[in-house]
Batch of 2 targets.
Target 1
Amino acid sequence: MNKLSILLFIVSVFFTACDDKLELTPYDGLTDDQLFATADGFETAIKGVYSGFRDYGYYGESKGIMIGPDIIADNLMYNKAGRQTQRSLFEWRNTAVDESFGLYERGYKIISRANRILDNIEKLKEGDFRNNIEAEAKAIRALVHFDIARTYCKIPTQNEDANASLGIAYVETFDPSATPRRQGNTVSGTYTKIVNDLLAASKINEDNGEGRLGKAAISGILSRVYLHMGDYAKANQEADKVIAMGVPVAKREDFGNIWIDSYKKNILFEIRITDQDRVRPGVSYSQDAQGEIKSEYVVSYPLYLLYSDADIRKSTTIQTSDFKENTYNHVAKYLGRATGDKNVIDGKYLRMAEVYLNKAEALAEDTDVSNDGDALKALDAVRSQRYSPFVSGNETGQALKDAIQLERRLELAFEGDRFYTLKRRGEGVMRSDHGEWADGTGTPPVVKELKASSFRWQLPIPQGAIDANPELKEDQNPGY
Amino acid sequence: MKKVLLALSFLVVFGLQAMLAQTKNITGTVTDAGDGAPIPGVSVFVKGTTVGTVTRPDGVYTLAVPSEATTLVFSFVGMKAQEIAIEGKATIDVVLQSDAVDVAEVVVTGYSTRKKDVIASAMSTITTEEMKDMVPSTTIDNMLQGKAAGVDATALNGKPGNTATVKIRGAVSLNTKGGDRAQPLYVIDGVFLSEEDLNALNPNDIESMSVLKDAAGASIYGSRGANGVVVITTKQGRKGQEARISLSSRYGVGNKIDDPYDMMNAAQKIEYEEALGEASYTPEEKERMLGFDHDWQDDILKQAIIQSHSVSATGGGTNSTYFVSVGYDKNSGIVEHLDGFERYSGRLNYTSQLREKLSVGSNMSLSYSESDEPRDRYNAQNPFYAMYGYNPYTPVYNHDSEGNLILDDNGNPTYNPTNSGLPILEALEKNPEQERYFRMIGSVYATYDIMDGLSFKTQYSGTYIRFQREYYVEPGSILDGYVGDKSAPGSKDDRGRDTFNYSWLNQLTYQKTIDKHNFDVMLLTEYSKGSWYSYRLSSKGYASADLTTQENGSEATRATTSREEYSMFSLAAAANYDWDGKYLASASIRRDGASRFGTDEKYGIFWSGSLAWNMAREDFMSSAEFLDDLKVRVSYGTLGNWNIPNYASQGYYQFGSYIGQSAGIIRPNVANPELTWEEQVSTNFGVESSLFNGRISAAVDYFINTRTDFLFENPLSWEGGSYTQYTNAGKMTTNGLEMELNGDIIRTKDLRWSMGLNMTFIDYEVNELNGQDQIVIDGDNVLKEGEEPFAFYLPRYAGVNPNNGNAQYLDKEGNITETYSSGNKVILSGKSPLANLYGGVRTSVSYKGIDLAADFSFKSGNYTYNQMAFDMLSDGEGITSNQRADALNYWKKPGDKNVLPKPMTNANQSSDRFLQDASYIRFRNLTVGYTLPVKLVQKIKLNKVRIYAQAQNLHTWTNFEGDPEVSVGSGESQLGATQNFIPGAFTLYSYPATRSFMFGIDINF
């Protein structure tokens, strides 16, 4: 080899530039342009929004709407033999650092996913498909804002100054760098936006299939929202719309099957969860320990006593059984399906029974058009399917109102309702001295009373949110 | 030519020997300074004559010298010749120093090797000789602790086989996601290696390590150099050398280092529970519970058995050289039922001169390791959590009321589920997790000498890493009861990853000396590509605990694969110049393009320049004969950091599922098309000196490193959806002073006492945060302008109110309050997990065959949040778990002082109460060795035998309540890709460090 040829070789090697090899695209995803190029892409994206509910805040493995509202109120009793989860929430010691609810963070994440679809919606041609996707995205955006608002802000009916008090940022575009303040948003302003989005969602399909919102769900949610706003007439109207669609209350013989996911007709909106999702929402309540149930929280003794033996719910939503040396009244709504992983169960956001109870309450509480007769009818639509034998109490006036509240508590126990119902009605929590064991003995709760006037009805804005958005510094709820 | 002369001289010597008369006999042994082995064939002759001989195979010579002879000359190929005055002695033993491969003089500086005295950059070099005295470890980075100025090595945790967190000159990455992103670049024989793969390397194979600390040294590595570079070369054979075989073996035991506190025993725990009203036991119950009293550490931990064995052979023929080695390491670890870490390693380094100008070579290593993994999480699935948390009155096994063991159907005792519900001993046995690594690291290269001084090298190097992990929840195990499916019991999870990274380097080097001007110039191109492919499979439904592969599962529950790639293309040039070794100058430039950055920002240019002046070579210094070298140097340059995830600049939709159908989910990290290199500007001033023929050496360096555009995963607002974005944010300055001093205090023929000290003082400051006020990381650490990075951000604790026993805090203004509020968090200036001073001290003494070495490492100014103390002194909050015995010392009546707060109040809150100074001095190593007399070992045909005993981590001086050497607090909550990791931020039951005692033997023949 002569030197010249070697030099040429070297020069050629040096200038074999590889610049084009620096553009590498990931294997694990698609850009917006790729995804939103087709209608199927929008479908995929909307499913991604729903999957966000399968997480803390809603139906994850701890915290959130499926257990928090029952812990912080009087339906659940802390079990010392559990893993001590959420104890600070139970004892009303939760702080901004240990906020214990999880909804603020994960809720806004769901909203951001809905907004990204809405930001791209123009890429779809006008028509039913687009209307439906837009409606679903707006409805989800509204219901999550609603849940954040009723958790972290006052509820309009809670007391007189509630409507004018601090609301939450209502986020309507996908902007991860946005740093909105709460200041400037009132509770009433927030609820107006919630209602507007839900009304705009009326273009939704009659039925979008399991685990997704449809027309009945939108009206059902609206009846709930209006009840929070004290707009009883509209709450009643929306409930009627759902009833007109023919959605049934679960019959007595079907009731137990709801909690093993083998009866679905009464469900207006739920988050479907499969074993493959590896999320076991029931773990928030209990785990199986060598064939026994190890509960984090058990049914509070006073609530347990409220279920009569004639009530189908006593045997289907409570399981009285031993764990180690003691007997407990375990919550049986989340133990899991007949087959498959334990504690995996769909997250039931709204059932028909609530719509009837919303209607009953709206009619009974509405001072303008007091209609005890129709209220009783709506109440009995639920009650008649729970007790055997069933004889209507034919209550009126305050007795009727009380009966509605009792039934609401019994029917919706452990489904994330109790705290919000007490809160919106301006009532306090008074726990009993009973302990965690099935016969009411055990260790009594450390703290028993949460006055209606306590600042703790408004959960603290998590410190993490304030750290990530210093604009919120002055926007923490009072008391924290 | 030299060889020919030598051979001729032998002939002459032999021929003339017989003719001599009037002589006396001198005898002696010639040994190699490197390994102490006798050298056969050394020529010994009387200076100025042709009278001489050669040493026999045992290195011994006997020579009849004329009475008028005054001096003997000893010479051997590849060794420095020595002249020794006879002075009437009858026995003259000689130790020859290696000459051609003199590691003390020539150091590897990355893409080239240079003589040390003409290097104008700040670097520390650790040679084989020095490594011999280092603390033996399965990984080389752990051995670096306290060894080189500016280098801070902290064991990740005590888990066998784990690597260390290595920080060069306080390199800090503000990007805390996915492990420590400020680890140095490791280059092993030209192959780039990541820190987690360092434990593929058998430390016995290492010839030398160079730590490139300033821009002048590291800038040639461009975008990967900002965290410093550790260049490691492995051993090579020598041409014409007969095979030398070394055996090295050590064996010993290790135990967890004792805690500086006691846990409650059964009586104390019962007392505590009753005093706090949490429980009341009947006398019978108490008696029974007291009968069970035990320390869970005795049940969960065991003594580790540590062993390490390696064999190597090195040598060469006329045109080739080789180094081969095999090694085996095993450390059983201290956890009951687990087998710890085991590694097999092998290496072949080979060179061959094919033609006069063409040579090829290859360095290849293989290693296989497996490790039983305990869970490293914050609950009782972690044995180290369990051993503190379990109550002392809870027995390991269930007992009936008579006190007899409750047996299962097979007659085996049943585990007591304990207060946590999970008996860890059962879990360790029945929920096994094992990790395995197979790693190939190698390179092949060819060099061609184009013309005098000009050579070309092309090298292809690669690393292939196969990782496998198996995790089995046996059917019927207690954990299976919690998480499993009744109808399909048991579950298995298999994960694996194949990683292949390669680089192709082409390099031209030109060297020229004209008169006293020495030049060298180097040009290179390098293309690197990395990729990995991973899988994860899960299934459930197992008929028996003995069936552990997924073919036996009844239902698959997960099957997923993923892939990633990166690429980089670089052009670089470097030049060095010196005039007679007196005036030195060097410069480098490198342009890197990388796939990880935003479309328009893919290229970065990094450069450096340095000047040095070796005053000792000046004529005016010639009177100072004791001075070998006195070098003043200055360097300046830029370096980059690209340690971010492969697609960090891109934002897109990822896909999960909803009801079994595809669901598009916005990636948690959003796009930043402008994302580019983090840049560090490094300035270095240094002075180094060597005195009295290398008897004393010292170096002092002052450095200022300014990082700008640092890469950071910025957490965005929760209202916007809690996304993150990689950004180039702000500016940070690190400056420091480091010094190294080594010297032989006594250096006589038989006795040698040497000492070494290195220390580094560092200051850190965040200068700018891109307009952001502050960035809080995981709540308790903060980045803020004017503060040390990761300063603690906590409410301040103000002791116990002696009147009512309540815990007191300071509000933001500094007023005492009993109301705890996280709103009273303040930045605790100067208190961060970063040390402001660290270093090491070593000393060694050898007297004849006996050697003794001790070394200490220290760290100061670093703070660690002691979450373990928080848990174990929880003021009643954690009463269901065991507590420290001193938890009993709480406030009981007004006036009580020096007590813990009254239990069950507001005390158990995150504050600076448990933020502790984690400064320490650790007695890392004490070794006593004995080298058997050469004459003795030769009788059994060996060259050298050394036996030694060694103790590690004998003592630690610290005020920290626990082990202060903290890097990982809790593996499963810090080391994931989306988790934050600030080394040393907190302790949380990670694998503890051990104290070990070893016995070892080294044999050469």
Note: The mean pLDDT of chain A is 93.
Target 2
Amino acid sequence: MPANNYEYFLLLPHIVLSVGIVLSILIEIFTKKGKEILPWVSSIIFLFVGVYSLLTLDKNFLIFGGTVEVGGKAAIFNFIFNIAALLTVLTSIDYIKKYEIFYSEYYILIQSSVLGMMVMSMAHDIIVIFMGLELMSICFYVLAGLNRKRLSNNEAALKYFLLGSFATGFIVYGIALIYGITGATSIQNIFENFIQYSNNILFIVGMLLLLIGFSFKIAAVPFHMWVPDVYQGAATSVTGLMSTAGKAAAFSVLIIVLGSNLTYSSPIAFRNYFSIIALLSTLIGSIIAISQNNLKRMLAYSSIAHAGYMAIGLAAGNKYSFAGIVFYLAAYVFMNIGAFTIISIIEGKDETRLTLDSYAGLYKKNPFLAAMMSLFMFALAGIPPMAGFFGKYYVFFGAIQADLTWLAIIGVLSSVISVYFYLRVIVYIYFMNETEKFDIEKSLGGNLAISLTGLLVLFFGIFPDTFMNLITNFIK
Amino acid sequence: METTILSILLLTPILGSILVLFFKDEQKNIIRWFGFVVSFIAFLISIIAYLKFDSSNSNFQLTHQIIWIKSLNISYFVGVDGISLLLVLLTTFLTPLTFLSTWKAIDKKLRMFTFSMLLLEAGMIGVFISLDVFLFYIFWEMMLIPMYFIIGIWGGERRIYAAIKFFIFTMFGSLLMLVAIIWLAVYSSGSNGQFTTNLIELYKISPTIPLKIQSWMFAAFFLSFAIKVPLFPLHTWLPDAHVEAPTAGSVILAGVLLKMGTYGLVRFCLPLFPQASINFAPIISVFAVIGIIYGALVSMVQTDMKKLVAYSSVSHLGFVVLGIFAMTVESVQGAVIQMVNHGLSTGALFLLVGIIYERTHRRDIAYYGGIAKLIPLYSVALMIAMLSSVGLPGLNGFIGEFLILIGSFKSNVLDNFWFTAFAATGVIFAAVYLLWMYQRVVFGNVTNQSLENELTDLNTREFLVLIPIFIFIVWIGIYPSTFLNLTDSSVKNILQQVSQSTVNILK
């Protein structure tokens, strides 16, 4: 265990971000130009934290009495969160004016939610997990309803808040039960004696409540009811962040919990639970997405299906599948934020131009956006050589290694279903003639975000090893 | 011997497809020339590869291996044997010709078209030269994207339906193959201590898979290839895709894409799962024979020329599948040469249908009649292509079908001459539907006066497209040894692998 001063040094990313939040609030209070300055301040902070985390991967320690982990897995997640946030901020610069949420608070809330995620992914103690979760969720509730004059925004925020707090209630109750039985909040303590505790029905109930709460956060069937309305109602850039980084944060916790289970006790508990979740999510998500005409809603259902594919990895529960989930999450961040950025650029005032019809003949209006949207759709559908394919590949690989071949088959079948609705977008873009005339606003930040994600999607697809090696080194 | 010639061959069209994006859409002629020149350079490179190839050696040659994904032990590993080299040559030979053939026909979004075609060429070459199952899968899936665009953007009336159907059918099969590939990699770690998708190592490992699981693996691979071939009753995407695709798309589809399925059967199904292949051979052959007769009968009643040619593909590829699963040297040799023949003769037929379609925008047989008087050169060209497809001795089609029929007749695996007997009727039917079509279109009086204004005879460009194909049609027909020698030792090698490992299991 490192010396005390050093511990703070290892926490530099979190400290920088916290200071950044305070600084941003001060900027907001004391200058009138906060709205113009803050996106760049946040971008620099996110960029620094993301890159710094990636550079300090190998400084992997448990600190503060074993309650938090720095470096290693946590650092990889920090990288994912911060890149996602950076891309979202770039997207937002022009978008939030159009959406009439041109407030400085927007950026401060994003920074805070990212801090919450970072706390979640570093936690090795259920209380710390809970702290991070609440910090993230509350920021998201506010972000979802930032435009208080808009009905759909209010609906999204309220739905998200009510159902989200319900899920949080599950988690708290689960934590209470677990603590009641084990007398400990440290994940290591709990799982070292897992077999002994698991004879106690209350402990199992507590664990299940915890998992159900997080199943809600990752948007898996049957806890997915909030997803379509919230994703559709919230501002597009916020949806992009919620559906990627928010999901990644929830998965980071599940990986910590299940990974510890694997490390300290041999039986793979909860495999059936996650198998069923995965089965339902992939199939239901893909099938319902077919009938969606609103692109945000379609991507909401596709996000449910993607949560299902990742849950296949949780069910498999071995090194490859966990590493696969992390890779998948990173790939998903790029593909999905890329797609949402394009949607936010096309979107008109008052939530118009969100349906597929607006995309008809897009290639004529803007070949760049058309090509990139197709790239993201192919990537989401899991066609090689895009990053999305390798995400699925690693997860299925883990599943087959764990003798869950049937689950992998379910996974590929729902992939086939999902191909239909992803391709439909491309059909509109390339194969149909335009039906409505409108001008696409120029957005420098948006185009930057799209180019960046597009390049990363291809890079991760053609050289998956670069990132995968980092992950496998730190997943035990 | 490591050499990079195949990698250069693969990179040429990829590089070309990236470079073409830097042109402006208005520079139409430059883009056309660019596409043609790049694909022609690829053809020249493949000729160099052919000259470097030693056909007496049955091992994979011109190999090039770079580690790609270390954690799963996947490498970029390419190389050819006689069979794959022949198909690579077919690909690089047909691609510049399709560019030339669509000089006028494709006018909108030319840049995108050239991009798609070159990417498609790279994907097809990649499929044929991959010696790593995973790499093979990547190329196999990757080429769906350009083909999807080619059908969807430049296709006919129902192009969207056809494009999506094509994509989803193929994807369905190939994703199950992906599961099987992963399963193989995991299995190999059990016996080998290390994951591997290297084909040469899998050749050693996978025949030891217990028969029950081997059958499932075989089924997953076979389904994927059978959809692509397409084998009856999985053929329904083919007529749609063919009819809706633009001429260039149809030529590539018939000429090369369908061969990827049959190539997969030879390269993967037989040597990887020999016992399962032998067990399933009779059932598959039944479907192949049904496909031969069904395809021919359906062709007979078509009123649309393109659809007629499309259904004739189902029939011809039935022969190929029958030849492969008869598993004799003659039949497999015949199947390989028939793949090339079908590429040439059906490709030529599609080109010719495309040529008059360009002039009249009609494909229904009833619209035409007596065009021999109006466009005699075209009629001669159509006759050569048609006779080659019918299997007239002296032209290429005869060689392939003959070899397949005698091979399957004496096959020990099928052990039943009825397969051959029924398959042979397909040859007769082929003569019926093609000659009948020819008669209705070409002979007799000019039935439709508007034809006189619309039709003009072949121009120089169209000649340049057709002549090279006809040269090969006659070459294979008269002196097939050039091509049979190329594949001889590779075919024997594969069949030896099958018999060796099945003997091992029987012990």
Note: Chain B touches chain A through 32 residues (CB under 8 Å).
